[in-house]
Amino acid sequence: MFKDTKAFSGFSVNDIPAAKAFYSNILGLDVEENPEMEHILTLHITGGGKIIVYPKPNHTPASFTVLNFPVKDVAAAVQQLKDKGVKFESYDWPGFKTDDDNIFRGGGPLIAWFTDPAGNIMSVIQE
């Protein structure tokens, strides 16, 4: 039924101007304000995909990763984002710990998590 649809994802934020600045200036994504739906952002990603970012007055940050950005070198991506003021998450759970560079190296692909201004969790993950 949905095999040939162009599905898209979306998530909420509590401050559209802060989200627009973050996604365009910090992450370097193409961000469009939707003229038909006031205060809605569309993030354009490689391959023609879209992600909708919408305001929600009682926004609660997602407690899971809402966006993963594949990169060739996680350590370089983490440093570039830190240089732009992005703070990375640190985890120290049994069997799950990030290192001093905020990178999880405990099996599987290297990955590091950060949040957008609304507190939604994102990651950079090594291809």
From TrEMBL:
Residues 5-127 form the VOC domain. This is VOC family protein. It comes from Mucilaginibacter agri. It comes from the Bacteria. PROSITE patterns: VOC.
